[in-house]
Amino acid sequence: MNSIETLTQILRESKNVVFFGGAGMSTESGVPDFRSANGIYSQRLHQEFHPEEMASHSFFVNHTEAFFEFYREHRIFRNIQPNAGHIALAELERRGILKAVVTQNIDGLHQLAGSKTVYELHGSILRWPCLQCGRVYPVDYVLQEENKPIPYCEDCGGIVRPGVVLYEEGLDSEVVHNAVRAIGEADTLIIGGTSLVVYPAAGLIDYFRGRHLVLINKTETKADSRAELVIRDAIGKVLSAAVAGI
């Protein structure tokens, strides 16, 4: 039995699957990752600041125009579509096997594929709340305002910022609570496309007490030794083939 057949068998036996994913989940949709050798954080995008600095709360406060320029150019991805992995997970949820997706991604591709229960640990680039009155704008509003260095609220004039968790900011406690509960109740946890180096998100897998731990990632992670099954291949290919075999 090969690794995909093994995963299919695990899914057949499971009644409460949770998927925990990172940047590698979306690379097949054309979204660049961050921490690989060719990722955004390895590039020099600005003469003075490193990309990780430009994604921080302090950079947003102290260099607001440069912050929005960075986000418009490097964090908003236009015309991207869910890949085979997103679609397979949505199908698994439709069948009642997958109970939740916990994601570190901000691109909204899981929901676009049809997934209903998605806990976005780092927020969403699709939602842009006003800091002053709380009105939430779609990402299209910010793109339409590209001629304005800083987007402002139509109602109160406050700054409209991306609804994502910046460096130096804490995760949303309700989202974390729901993610912990889902992982803790799962009989199977599939981890895909994450290096498991970003905390506190990476620490969530420690709440898993179920039977099957599956890891799909092209490179080694700290959780490999704990996993029942480790697959070094493209997530979309693996998940679509495994779900098709159920």
UniProtKB/TrEMBL annotation:
Zn(2+) binds at residues 130, 133, 153, 156. Binds 1 zinc ion per subunit. Keywords: Cytoplasm, Metal-binding, NAD, Transferase, Zinc. Residues 1-246 form the Deacetylase sirtuin-type domain. Nicotinamide binds at residues 34, 106-107. The gene is cobB. GO terms for cellular component: cytoplasm. It is found in: Cytoplasm. HAMAP family: Sirtuin_ClassU. NAD-dependent protein deacetylase which modulates the activities of several enzymes which are inactive in their acetylated form. It comes from Succiniclasticum ruminis. Belongs to the sirtuin family. Class U subfamily. Its cofactor is Zn(2+). InterPro entries: DHS-like_NAD/FAD-binding_dom, NAD-dep_sirtuin_deacylases, Sirtuin, Sirtuin_cat_small_dom_sf, Sirtuin_class_U, Ssirtuin_cat_dom. This is NAD-dependent protein deacetylase. NAD(+) binds at residues 23, 27, 34-35, 104, 106-107, 122, 194-195, 217, 235.
